[in-house]
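Our consortium's second objective concerns turning raw sequence data into structural hypotheses that experimental partners can test. To show how far this objective has progressed, the report includes one record in full. It was chosen at random from the queue rather than selected for favorable results. The single chain below, 420 residues long, was entered without modification.
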Amino acid sequence: MAKVLAALRHHWKKSTFGACLLGWGGHWLYGKHCDNLLRRAACQEAQAFGNQLMPATMPLKKATVFLNPAACKGKAGNLFEKNAAPILHLSGLDVTVVKTDYEGQAKKLLELMENTDLIIIAGGDGTVQEVITGLLRRADEAAFSKIPIGFIPLGKTCTLSHTLYPESTNQVQHITNATLAILKGETVPLDVLQIKGEKEQPVFAVSGLRWGSYRDAGVKVSKYWYFGPLKTKAAHFFSTFKEWPQKHQAALMYLGPTERPPEEPEEKSSRPPLYVRLYRRLRSYWSSPKEFPPDVAPEGWEELKLSTIELSIATRNRQLDLTRTEDFMDICIEAESVSKGEFVHRGSQKMRDPLMCPEGSQRIQASRCILQLPEGTEGSFGIDNEEYEAMPVEVKLLPRKLRFFCDPRMREQLLQAAVQ
Protein backbone atom coordinates (compact mmCIF):
# COMPACT_ATOMS: atom_id res chain seq x y z
CA MET A 1 0.00 0.00 0.00
CA ALA A 2 2.83 2.33 0.87
CA LYS A 3 4.47 1.62 -2.50
CA VAL A 4 1.21 2.44 -4.31
CA LEU A 5 0.83 5.73 -2.47
CA ALA A 6 4.44 6.58 -3.15
CA ALA A 7 4.01 5.84 -6.86
CA LEU A 8 0.88 8.00 -7.00
CA ARG A 9 2.68 10.83 -5.26
CA HIS A 10 5.68 10.49 -7.52
CA HIS A 11 3.52 10.49 -10.71
CA TRP A 12 0.98 13.02 -9.49
CA LYS A 13 0.21 14.42 -12.97
CA LYS A 14 -0.71 11.02 -14.36
CA SER A 15 -2.63 10.21 -11.18
CA THR A 16 -4.65 13.43 -11.43
CA PHE A 17 -5.45 12.81 -15.11
CA GLY A 18 -6.44 9.21 -14.38
CA ALA A 19 -8.70 10.27 -11.49
CA CYS A 20 -10.42 12.88 -13.66
CA LEU A 21 -10.89 10.37 -16.47
CA LEU A 22 -12.26 7.78 -14.06
CA GLY A 23 -14.67 10.31 -12.53
CA TRP A 24 -15.92 11.43 -15.95
CA GLY A 25 -16.38 7.81 -17.04
CA GLY A 26 -18.33 6.98 -13.90
CA HIS A 27 -20.58 10.01 -14.35
CA TRP A 28 -21.20 9.06 -18.00
CA LEU A 29 -22.10 5.47 -17.09
CA TYR A 30 -24.41 6.66 -14.31
CA GLY A 31 -26.18 8.97 -16.78
CA LYS A 32 -26.67 6.08 -19.22
CA HIS A 33 -28.07 3.94 -16.39
CA CYS A 34 -30.56 6.68 -15.42
CA ASP A 35 -31.64 7.05 -19.06
CA ASN A 36 -32.30 3.31 -19.28
CA LEU A 37 -34.41 3.49 -16.11
CA LEU A 38 -36.47 6.31 -17.65
CA ARG A 39 -37.00 4.29 -20.84
CA ARG A 40 -38.02 1.20 -18.87
CA ALA A 41 -40.54 3.13 -16.75
CA ALA A 42 -42.04 4.76 -19.87
CA CYS A 43 -42.33 1.39 -21.63
CA GLN A 44 -44.08 -0.12 -18.61
CA GLU A 45 -46.57 2.74 -18.63
CA ALA A 46 -47.13 2.29 -22.37
CA GLN A 47 -47.62 -1.44 -21.85
CA ALA A 48 -50.55 -0.65 -19.53
CA PHE A 49 -52.27 1.12 -22.45
CA GLY A 50 -51.54 -1.83 -24.74
CA ASN A 51 -53.01 -4.35 -22.26
CA GLN A 52 -56.40 -2.63 -22.11
CA LEU A 53 -59.26 -4.79 -23.39
CA MET A 54 -61.21 -3.60 -26.42
CA PRO A 55 -64.18 -5.01 -28.37
CA ALA A 56 -63.28 -7.49 -31.08
CA THR A 57 -65.11 -5.41 -33.69
CA MET A 58 -63.18 -2.24 -32.90
CA PRO A 59 -60.20 -1.72 -35.24
CA LEU A 60 -56.81 -0.63 -33.96
CA LYS A 61 -56.12 3.08 -34.02
CA LYS A 62 -53.84 4.06 -36.87
CA ALA A 63 -50.97 6.42 -36.10
CA THR A 64 -48.92 7.94 -38.93
CA VAL A 65 -45.50 9.21 -37.83
CA PHE A 66 -43.64 11.75 -39.96
CA LEU A 67 -39.99 11.41 -38.93
CA ASN A 68 -37.24 13.75 -40.07
CA PRO A 69 -33.99 11.78 -39.55
CA ALA A 70 -31.90 14.84 -40.44
CA ALA A 71 -33.15 16.83 -37.45
CA CYS A 72 -30.81 17.47 -34.51
CA LYS A 73 -27.77 17.21 -36.81
CA GLY A 74 -28.75 13.74 -38.01
CA LYS A 75 -29.40 12.27 -34.55
CA ALA A 76 -33.21 12.37 -34.71
CA GLY A 77 -33.60 8.89 -36.20
CA ASN A 78 -31.54 7.28 -33.44
CA LEU A 79 -33.34 9.30 -30.75
CA PHE A 80 -36.72 8.20 -32.08
CA GLU A 81 -35.81 4.51 -32.31
CA LYS A 82 -34.38 4.43 -28.79
CA ASN A 83 -36.88 6.56 -26.87
CA ALA A 84 -40.19 6.95 -28.74
CA ALA A 85 -40.67 3.96 -31.06
CA PRO A 86 -40.82 1.28 -28.28
CA ILE A 87 -43.47 3.30 -26.42
CA LEU A 88 -45.66 3.67 -29.52
CA HIS A 89 -45.44 -0.02 -30.44
CA LEU A 90 -46.18 -1.21 -26.88
CA SER A 91 -49.25 1.04 -26.65
CA GLY A 92 -51.28 -1.06 -29.09
CA LEU A 93 -51.34 1.51 -31.90
CA ASP A 94 -51.02 0.52 -35.55
CA VAL A 95 -47.92 2.63 -36.23
CA THR A 96 -46.71 3.62 -39.69
CA VAL A 97 -43.41 5.53 -39.76
CA VAL A 98 -42.79 7.77 -42.79
CA LYS A 99 -39.20 9.02 -43.03
CA THR A 100 -38.53 12.16 -45.03
CA ASP A 101 -35.47 12.25 -47.27
CA TYR A 102 -35.36 15.90 -48.36
CA GLU A 103 -36.77 19.29 -47.46
CA GLY A 104 -40.39 19.76 -48.52
CA GLN A 105 -41.12 16.05 -48.90
CA ALA A 106 -43.54 16.01 -45.96
CA LYS A 107 -45.79 18.52 -47.76
CA LYS A 108 -46.05 16.21 -50.77
CA LEU A 109 -46.60 13.10 -48.65
CA LEU A 110 -49.48 14.77 -46.81
CA GLU A 111 -51.30 15.23 -50.13
CA LEU A 112 -51.27 11.44 -50.62
CA MET A 113 -51.93 10.40 -47.02
CA GLU A 114 -54.96 8.21 -46.47
CA ASN A 115 -57.24 8.28 -43.46
CA THR A 116 -55.50 7.99 -40.11
CA ASP A 117 -56.57 8.41 -36.50
CA LEU A 118 -53.44 10.20 -35.27
CA ILE A 119 -50.71 12.26 -36.88
CA ILE A 120 -47.38 12.30 -35.04
CA ILE A 121 -44.60 14.72 -35.96
CA ALA A 122 -41.11 13.62 -34.90
CA GLY A 123 -38.59 16.38 -35.54
CA GLY A 124 -38.18 20.10 -34.94
CA ASP A 125 -39.89 23.34 -35.91
CA GLY A 126 -39.21 22.81 -39.61
CA THR A 127 -40.88 19.39 -39.60
CA VAL A 128 -43.94 20.79 -37.79
CA GLN A 129 -44.21 23.62 -40.30
CA GLU A 130 -43.98 21.26 -43.27
CA VAL A 131 -46.55 18.79 -41.93
CA ILE A 132 -49.20 21.35 -41.01
CA THR A 133 -48.68 23.15 -44.33
CA GLY A 134 -49.20 19.93 -46.25
CA LEU A 135 -52.20 19.07 -44.08
CA LEU A 136 -53.96 22.41 -44.52
CA ARG A 137 -53.29 22.57 -48.26
CA ARG A 138 -55.40 19.46 -48.85
CA ALA A 139 -58.75 19.85 -50.57
CA ASP A 140 -60.38 18.00 -47.66
CA GLU A 141 -58.51 19.96 -44.98
CA ALA A 142 -61.75 20.68 -43.11
CA ALA A 143 -61.98 17.01 -42.18
CA PHE A 144 -58.25 16.28 -41.83
CA SER A 145 -57.64 19.30 -39.62
CA LYS A 146 -59.77 17.62 -36.94
CA ILE A 147 -57.29 14.75 -36.61
CA PRO A 148 -55.33 15.19 -33.35
CA ILE A 149 -51.62 15.80 -33.79
CA GLY A 150 -48.79 14.66 -31.54
CA PHE A 151 -45.37 16.28 -31.43
CA ILE A 152 -42.19 14.45 -30.39
CA PRO A 153 -39.43 17.08 -30.00
CA LEU A 154 -36.29 15.78 -31.72
CA GLY A 155 -34.99 18.89 -33.48
CA LYS A 156 -32.51 21.57 -32.56
CA THR A 157 -35.33 24.10 -32.14
CA CYS A 158 -38.65 22.84 -30.74
CA THR A 159 -40.62 25.98 -29.90
CA LEU A 160 -43.92 24.14 -29.59
CA SER A 161 -42.64 21.84 -26.83
CA HIS A 162 -42.62 24.79 -24.38
CA THR A 163 -46.40 25.01 -24.78
CA LEU A 164 -47.24 21.31 -24.73
CA TYR A 165 -44.84 19.76 -22.21
CA PRO A 166 -43.14 20.67 -18.91
CA GLU A 167 -39.55 21.86 -19.08
CA SER A 168 -36.92 19.14 -18.66
CA THR A 169 -33.14 19.24 -18.84
CA ASN A 170 -32.96 15.51 -19.60
CA GLN A 171 -33.50 14.85 -23.30
CA VAL A 172 -34.61 11.23 -22.80
CA GLN A 173 -37.20 12.25 -20.22
CA HIS A 174 -38.45 15.06 -22.46
CA ILE A 175 -38.96 12.69 -25.42
CA THR A 176 -40.59 9.92 -23.39
CA ASN A 177 -42.93 12.39 -21.66
CA ALA A 178 -44.00 13.79 -25.03
CA THR A 179 -44.65 10.30 -26.41
CA LEU A 180 -46.66 9.24 -23.36
CA ALA A 181 -48.73 12.44 -23.63
CA ILE A 182 -49.96 11.20 -27.01
CA LEU A 183 -51.25 8.01 -25.39
CA LYS A 184 -53.00 9.87 -22.55
CA GLY A 185 -55.17 11.71 -25.06
CA GLU A 186 -55.33 15.23 -23.59
CA THR A 187 -55.40 17.89 -26.31
CA VAL A 188 -55.37 21.69 -26.55
CA PRO A 189 -56.50 23.81 -29.52
CA LEU A 190 -53.76 25.88 -31.14
CA ASP A 191 -54.00 28.85 -33.47
CA VAL A 192 -52.44 28.75 -36.93
CA LEU A 193 -51.21 31.57 -39.16
CA GLN A 194 -51.97 31.37 -42.87
CA ILE A 195 -49.25 33.26 -44.76
CA LYS A 196 -49.93 33.80 -48.44
CA GLY A 197 -47.84 35.60 -51.04
CA GLU A 198 -49.08 37.05 -54.30
CA LYS A 199 -48.35 33.93 -56.36
CA GLU A 200 -47.19 31.19 -54.02
CA GLN A 201 -49.39 28.66 -52.25
CA PRO A 202 -50.07 29.54 -48.60
CA VAL A 203 -47.66 28.52 -45.88
CA PHE A 204 -48.91 27.78 -42.36
CA ALA A 205 -47.20 28.41 -39.03
CA VAL A 206 -47.99 27.70 -35.37
CA SER A 207 -45.42 30.11 -33.90
CA GLY A 208 -45.02 33.13 -36.13
CA LEU A 209 -43.18 35.18 -38.72
CA ARG A 210 -40.04 37.28 -38.20
CA TRP A 211 -38.46 39.86 -40.49
CA GLY A 212 -35.53 42.01 -39.49
CA SER A 213 -31.96 42.40 -38.32
CA TYR A 214 -32.08 40.07 -35.30
CA ARG A 215 -33.31 37.22 -37.47
CA ASP A 216 -30.67 37.88 -40.13
CA ALA A 217 -27.89 37.87 -37.52
CA GLY A 218 -29.27 34.79 -35.76
CA VAL A 219 -29.04 32.56 -38.83
CA LYS A 220 -25.31 33.33 -39.09
CA VAL A 221 -24.41 32.29 -35.55
CA SER A 222 -23.15 28.86 -36.61
CA LYS A 223 -20.57 30.50 -38.91
CA TYR A 224 -18.79 31.92 -35.85
CA TRP A 225 -18.36 28.55 -34.12
CA TYR A 226 -14.69 29.30 -33.44
CA PHE A 227 -15.77 31.92 -30.86
CA GLY A 228 -17.19 29.15 -28.70
CA PRO A 229 -19.76 30.42 -26.14
CA LEU A 230 -19.35 33.96 -27.53
CA LYS A 231 -20.47 33.02 -31.06
CA THR A 232 -23.95 34.54 -30.61
CA LYS A 233 -22.58 37.89 -29.47
CA ALA A 234 -19.96 37.76 -32.24
CA ALA A 235 -22.61 37.22 -34.95
CA HIS A 236 -24.65 40.21 -33.77
CA PHE A 237 -21.55 42.36 -33.21
CA PHE A 238 -20.21 41.82 -36.73
CA SER A 239 -23.66 42.45 -38.23
CA THR A 240 -23.48 46.01 -36.82
CA PHE A 241 -20.64 46.74 -39.26
CA LYS A 242 -23.28 47.08 -41.98
CA GLU A 243 -25.20 50.28 -42.53
CA TRP A 244 -26.33 51.51 -39.12
CA PRO A 245 -28.99 51.96 -37.90
CA GLN A 246 -30.51 49.08 -39.84
CA LYS A 247 -34.04 49.96 -40.97
CA HIS A 248 -36.74 47.80 -42.47
CA GLN A 249 -39.52 49.88 -44.02
CA ALA A 250 -42.95 48.60 -45.01
CA ALA A 251 -46.66 49.38 -45.03
CA LEU A 252 -49.00 47.41 -42.78
CA MET A 253 -52.77 47.10 -43.06
CA TYR A 254 -54.60 45.19 -40.35
CA LEU A 255 -57.96 44.29 -38.84
CA GLY A 256 -58.59 44.20 -35.11
CA PRO A 257 -59.39 41.14 -32.96
CA THR A 258 -62.49 39.05 -33.65
CA GLU A 259 -64.95 37.72 -31.13
CA ARG A 260 -64.37 34.07 -30.30
CA PRO A 261 -67.38 31.91 -31.22
CA PRO A 262 -68.50 29.17 -28.82
CA GLU A 263 -66.56 25.95 -29.19
CA GLU A 264 -68.34 23.23 -31.11
CA PRO A 265 -69.15 20.09 -29.12
CA GLU A 266 -66.80 17.23 -29.82
CA GLU A 267 -69.57 14.65 -30.05
CA LYS A 268 -72.35 15.20 -32.53
CA SER A 269 -75.91 14.50 -31.43
CA SER A 270 -77.57 11.39 -32.78
CA ARG A 271 -79.77 11.64 -35.86
CA PRO A 272 -83.41 12.47 -34.98
CA PRO A 273 -86.22 10.00 -35.80
CA LEU A 274 -87.83 9.94 -39.24
CA TYR A 275 -91.10 11.62 -38.17
CA VAL A 276 -89.15 14.52 -36.61
CA ARG A 277 -87.18 15.05 -39.82
CA LEU A 278 -90.37 14.95 -41.93
CA TYR A 279 -92.06 17.49 -39.66
CA ARG A 280 -89.09 19.85 -39.90
CA ARG A 281 -89.02 19.65 -43.69
CA LEU A 282 -92.76 20.33 -43.99
CA ARG A 283 -92.52 23.25 -41.57
CA SER A 284 -89.64 24.80 -43.50
CA TYR A 285 -91.52 24.28 -46.79
CA TRP A 286 -94.75 25.98 -45.68
CA SER A 287 -93.14 28.72 -43.60
CA SER A 288 -92.73 32.21 -45.00
CA PRO A 289 -89.55 32.86 -46.97
CA LYS A 290 -86.60 34.06 -44.95
CA GLU A 291 -85.47 37.62 -45.31
CA PHE A 292 -81.94 38.09 -46.54
CA PRO A 293 -79.59 39.75 -44.06
CA PRO A 294 -78.56 43.32 -44.79
CA ASP A 295 -75.33 43.99 -46.58
CA VAL A 296 -72.32 43.61 -44.33
CA ALA A 297 -70.49 46.83 -43.62
CA PRO A 298 -67.03 47.08 -45.19
CA GLU A 299 -64.20 45.83 -43.03
CA GLY A 300 -62.43 48.50 -41.03
CA TRP A 301 -58.84 48.19 -42.21
CA GLU A 302 -56.27 50.37 -40.50
CA GLU A 303 -53.06 51.37 -42.28
CA LEU A 304 -49.66 52.06 -40.79
CA LYS A 305 -46.32 53.07 -42.29
CA LEU A 306 -43.50 51.51 -40.33
CA SER A 307 -39.74 51.69 -40.05
CA THR A 308 -38.35 49.09 -37.68
CA ILE A 309 -35.29 47.05 -36.84
CA GLU A 310 -37.47 43.93 -36.66
CA LEU A 311 -41.11 43.00 -37.16
CA SER A 312 -42.72 39.87 -35.75
CA ILE A 313 -46.23 38.42 -36.16
CA ALA A 314 -46.89 35.71 -33.61
CA THR A 315 -49.73 33.48 -32.44
CA ARG A 316 -50.81 33.37 -28.80
CA ASN A 317 -49.85 29.70 -28.50
CA ARG A 318 -47.04 30.52 -26.05
CA GLN A 319 -49.58 32.23 -23.74
CA LEU A 320 -52.56 29.90 -24.12
CA ASP A 321 -55.78 31.11 -22.53
CA LEU A 322 -58.65 28.64 -22.91
CA THR A 323 -61.20 31.21 -21.67
CA ARG A 324 -60.18 34.11 -23.94
CA THR A 325 -63.18 35.84 -25.56
CA GLU A 326 -61.27 37.32 -28.50
CA ASP A 327 -58.99 35.80 -31.12
CA PHE A 328 -55.97 37.73 -32.34
CA MET A 329 -52.29 37.52 -33.23
CA ASP A 330 -49.59 39.76 -31.77
CA ILE A 331 -47.75 42.16 -34.09
CA CYS A 332 -44.58 43.59 -32.58
CA ILE A 333 -42.88 46.56 -34.29
CA GLU A 334 -39.54 47.18 -32.57
CA ALA A 335 -38.05 50.66 -32.41
CA GLU A 336 -35.25 51.31 -34.89
CA SER A 337 -33.34 53.56 -32.48
CA VAL A 338 -31.21 50.86 -30.84
CA SER A 339 -27.56 51.26 -29.91
CA LYS A 340 -25.03 48.68 -31.05
CA GLY A 341 -24.52 47.48 -27.48
CA GLU A 342 -28.26 47.01 -26.97
CA PHE A 343 -28.47 45.19 -30.28
CA VAL A 344 -25.79 42.67 -29.26
CA HIS A 345 -27.33 42.14 -25.81
CA ARG A 346 -30.89 41.81 -27.11
CA GLY A 347 -29.75 39.51 -29.89
CA SER A 348 -28.61 36.96 -27.31
CA GLN A 349 -32.03 37.16 -25.62
CA LYS A 350 -33.80 36.65 -28.94
CA MET A 351 -31.83 33.49 -29.60
CA ARG A 352 -33.52 32.03 -26.51
CA ASP A 353 -36.95 33.58 -27.19
CA PRO A 354 -37.16 34.62 -30.87
CA LEU A 355 -40.65 36.16 -30.62
CA MET A 356 -40.06 38.29 -27.53
CA CYS A 357 -41.35 41.84 -27.81
CA PRO A 358 -39.04 44.21 -25.86
CA GLU A 359 -40.16 47.29 -24.00
CA GLY A 360 -40.63 50.38 -26.13
CA SER A 361 -42.00 48.40 -29.08
CA GLN A 362 -45.34 49.12 -30.72
CA ARG A 363 -47.75 46.23 -30.13
CA ILE A 364 -50.83 45.57 -32.24
CA GLN A 365 -53.51 42.92 -31.85
CA ALA A 366 -54.94 41.84 -35.18
CA SER A 367 -56.90 39.00 -36.74
CA ARG A 368 -55.61 39.65 -40.25
CA CYS A 369 -52.93 41.83 -41.80
CA ILE A 370 -51.31 42.67 -45.12
CA LEU A 371 -47.60 43.47 -45.20
CA GLN A 372 -46.49 45.49 -48.22
CA LEU A 373 -42.74 45.71 -48.89
CA PRO A 374 -41.04 48.29 -51.13
CA GLU A 375 -39.85 47.09 -54.52
CA GLY A 376 -36.37 45.62 -54.46
CA THR A 377 -36.56 44.63 -50.78
CA GLU A 378 -33.93 42.02 -49.99
CA GLY A 379 -33.67 39.63 -47.07
CA SER A 380 -35.73 36.74 -45.82
CA PHE A 381 -38.62 35.92 -43.53
CA GLY A 382 -38.28 33.43 -40.72
CA ILE A 383 -41.52 31.40 -40.58
CA ASP A 384 -41.38 28.99 -37.65
CA ASN A 385 -37.57 29.25 -37.89
CA GLU A 386 -37.63 28.26 -41.57
CA GLU A 387 -36.25 30.70 -44.15
CA TYR A 388 -38.49 32.12 -46.92
CA GLU A 389 -37.88 34.91 -49.41
CA ALA A 390 -39.20 38.28 -48.21
CA MET A 391 -42.19 39.39 -50.27
CA PRO A 392 -45.57 41.11 -49.78
CA VAL A 393 -47.77 38.72 -47.82
CA GLU A 394 -51.21 38.46 -46.28
CA VAL A 395 -51.28 36.88 -42.82
CA LYS A 396 -54.59 35.51 -41.57
CA LEU A 397 -55.28 34.01 -38.17
CA LEU A 398 -57.02 30.63 -38.11
CA PRO A 399 -58.12 30.43 -34.47
CA ARG A 400 -58.08 27.02 -32.75
CA LYS A 401 -57.51 25.35 -36.10
CA LEU A 402 -55.54 22.30 -34.93
CA ARG A 403 -55.61 20.16 -31.79
CA PHE A 404 -52.27 19.01 -30.39
CA PHE A 405 -51.70 16.40 -27.70
CA CYS A 406 -50.29 17.89 -24.52
CA ASP A 407 -49.12 16.70 -21.12
CA PRO A 408 -52.12 16.53 -18.74
CA ARG A 409 -50.17 18.60 -16.21
CA MET A 410 -49.85 21.47 -18.68
CA ARG A 411 -53.58 21.38 -19.44
CA GLU A 412 -54.37 21.39 -15.73
CA GLN A 413 -52.14 24.44 -15.24
CA LEU A 414 -53.98 26.25 -18.05
CA LEU A 415 -57.37 25.48 -16.50
CA GLN A 416 -56.23 26.59 -13.04
CA ALA A 417 -54.84 29.84 -14.46
CA ALA A 418 -58.14 30.45 -16.25
CA VAL A 419 -60.11 30.01 -13.01
CA GLN A 420 -57.83 32.38 -11.10
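The partners drew two points from this record. The two ends are 67 Å apart (CA to CA). The chain has two domains: 22-49+58-185, 208-261+299-400. Both points have been shared with the crystallography group to help prioritize constructs.
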